[in-house]
Amino acid sequence: MDWSTVFSMSTLVNTVNTATIVVLAGLGCLLTDQVGIMSIGIDGMMTAGAFAAVMGSWLCGSWLMGIVFALAAGLLFGLFYAVFVVRFKSDEFIIGVAMNIFAVALTTFMLRSIPGQTGSFHPATGTVTKLPAFTLTLPGGTPVTLSLMVPLSWLLVAVCWVMMYRTPLGYWLHASGEHPESLRSVGRSPERMRYLGSLLCGLLCGLSGAYLSLGYLSTFTENMSASRGYVAVACVIFGRSNPLYVFLAALLFGFIDTAGQRMQGVVDPTLTATFPYIGTILMMVLLAARTAIRKRRA
Amino acid sequence: MKKETKNYLVSLSCAVLLALLIGAVIMLITGHNPLEGYGALFTGALGTPRGIGNTLYKAAQLCITGLATAVAAQAGIFNVGGEGQMFLGALAACWVGASLNGQSPWLVIPLCLAVAAATGAFYAWIPAVMKVKMGISEVITTILMNTIAIKFCTYMANGPLKTTERGVNQGTASLDKLFRFDKLIPGSNLTETIFYIAVLTFLVWYLMTRTTAGFEMKLTGQNPRFAKFSGIRAERLAIIGMLISGALCGLLGMFECFGLQTRFKADFSNEFYFDGMLVAMIMRYKPVGIILMSLFFGVLKIGGITMQSRTGISSELILIVQSIIIFFMAAEDGVMQRLRLRRAARGLVRSAGKDGEA
Questions:
Q1: Rounded CA gap, B85 and B118, in Å?
Q2: Is residue B349 part of a domain?
Q3: pLDDT of residue A255 exceeding 90
Q4: Which is more confident, B219 or B85?
Q5: B19 near A CB under 8 A
Q6: Please, which pLDDT band fits residue B228 given cuts at 50, 70 and 90?
């Protein structure tokens, strides 16, 4: 096979594009991880965001409204998750998994009853306005088109890093997960921080969904997040809760995904579609093995 | 009846009724008549012999997948990967079965049962070991492994193992007529597999409620620390729970393909496992509860299909109702605790008031 198609400029661009979905969701998951909540439900938040974005963009004819809708959906799901996990102290796994199933069922139901379509959304009237994109010319002379959300996600990684390590808010969030009692002793409510973490997670996952349906693709399909939310959770574990490392882990996932697509001439496309998932599991095994070796040495 | 069980049943009935009510509201919002919708649902599931057959079969399926979730969960490990285990078990059994076409069914069927169970168990063993030895969250690995298994099986069924029969455009080679499980009620989905499922259900119920291993599982599920100090090897238990869970899923995959499909098809399952998992979660992994609740959910699932075809309400509504029941039941613990605390606080205030008067 021709390896130059696998390691090329277009692969790099594709890697970045694919990774952005996971970067945004990963940042959300990271924030809930900070406040001590295991965010299994982010897959559902992404699905809800993706659906809301398409609906917003289609109904109002503007991508901005698409994002607003997606943020609202994300916020709602984030609040929902927080109410159950923080207030009712329900099992995170049960609520998370149930929420993912619920989100797929709800969006599929709404797709089938509001515009009355099955499978994916193809409006008869009106159009779905995509997120704006800009074109860069790289030093080699190749023009590259990126969605606005891509640089925005990089910015958010930086913002997240600064917030976590350089602001009091970051420390409070962290303390509410690690040492809720010490946070309480300085007069801050750990519960409030947990709510905040979960709401921010909802917003970021909403953005991720909006990018998925309005930037990466330009339609909504049933169950479109395709377990990428779980990949994001894996990236947070692999990135050991540091925004920068989570970003790199997401890039790695994006690369495996893209490289798989490039190999479709040689390997069956159904098989190459499994690569990113196998890669994610291997990533987690490698990390665990490394930790085990370090422990043995120490 | 124990007070705890009684309270639970009351909460559960409230949750189910409320969820059905929310379903009715959704029907109203989308411009349908709820009475018509639920009417179509119940007559569709229970009105005809064919409907009853389908409902029973669905209930059996939910029961096995629910018990598969419960066995693992009681042992302290959460198997979200049943779908993948089911696909691989089905594919392996169909491949072995079809390559032995023409042999005696007395030899082939037990062999296929063993192959399906072993394949499912093996695929469940991988995330179990990763969890126990390396501490990797099984929820994430199992769900990712679902996608891997389903894609792999799809590839095999449409590629290397694709049937060469004319006029068949998908799936592996068909199984010998002697190997197939026949239908019990003509026109319905109810096949002889229901007997196998009944035996499996009894075995799992017996294991979970009448054996030492089951008792140890229950202890570990309730209080892992106590279980550890009383000498229970939680890691071994988790792996055993996962192996049984995977084997059950593999077997169900085989039943489905040897019964209804007569060959392995990549679209044989419509996320069966997740439906059963929801049942298990609602019943808090209690085997008897799961068996009974499967019947109710079987009615909803099968009736949902009739509802969709007769009134045009998408059957996804049933899944929405089911997940709402889970949300209610998950919140129940917290809400009840709050109510109890508030009542206790009010009692304290009242008694304090009385003291003041005296």
A1: 10
A2: no
A3: yes
A4: B85
A5: no
A6: confident
Q: Do B187 and B320 share a structural domain?
A: no
Per-residue pLDDT of B241-266, as tens digits, reads 999 999 999 999 999 999 888 899 98
Query: Contact A90/B140, CB-based, under 8 Å?
Result: no
In a domain? residue B45: no
User: What value does the mean pLDDT take over residues A276-283?
Assistant: 92
Contact A102 B323 (CB under 8 A): yes
Query: Is residue B297 pLDDT above 90, yes or no?
Result: yes
Size of interface A-B (CB pairs under 8 A): 122
Long-range Cβ contacts of A57-66 (<8 Å, 24+ apart): A57/A128, A57/A129, A57/A130, A57/A214, A58/A121, A58/A123, A58/A126, A58/A127, A58/A128, A61/A126, A61/A127, A61/A129, A62/A129, A63/A129, A63/A130, A63/A131, A63/A132, A63/A214, A66/A128, A66/A129, A66/A131, A66/A210, A66/A214
Pick from B130, B155, B319: CB nearest A268? B155
Domain check: are B58 and B173 in the same one?
Answer: yes
CA distance A198 to chain B (A): 17
Whether residues B292 and B325 share a domain: the answer is no
Among A248, A249, A247, A220, smallest CA distance to A234 is for: A249
**Mean pLDDT for the stretch of residues B66-71:** 95
Does pLDDT of A293 surpass 70? yes
Instruction: Domain of residue B3: give its range.
Output: 1-32+313-334
Q: What is the CATH number of the domain that holds A178?
A: 1.10.3470
Please give the structure tokens belonging to residue B260. Answer: 């209804």
Are A237 and B137 in contact (CB < 8 Å)? yes
Range of the domain at A41: 3-131+145-291
Is B148's CB within 8 Å of A112's CB? no
DSSP state of A143: E
pTM for the full predicted model: 0.90
Residues in contact with B334: Cβ distance below 8 Å, sequence separation at least 6, in sequence order: A84, A87, A88, A89, A90
Q: Does B148 touch chain A (CB under 8 A)?
A: yes
- Is B119 part of any domain? yes
The string of pLDDT tens digits covering residues B134-147 is 889 898 899 999 99
Per the structure, how many domains does chain A have?
Answer: 1
**Which tokens sit at A11?**
């692969």
Whether A85 is covered by a domain: the verdict is yes
Total domains in the fold of chain B: 2
Q: Is B42 on the interface with A (CB under 8 A)?
A: no
Residue B355's pLDDT is what? 66
- Mutation target for B interface from A43, A225, A271: give the one with most B CBs within 10 A: A271
Contacts of A237 in chain B (CB under 8 A): 136-137, 140
pLDDT at residue number A6: 67
User: Percent of chain A beyond pLDDT 90?
Assistant: 60
Name chain A contacts of B151, Cβ cutoff 8 Å. 270-271, 273-274
Q: Which of B156-165, B286-295, B308-317 bottoms out in mean pLDDT, i.e. has the lowest?
A: B156-165
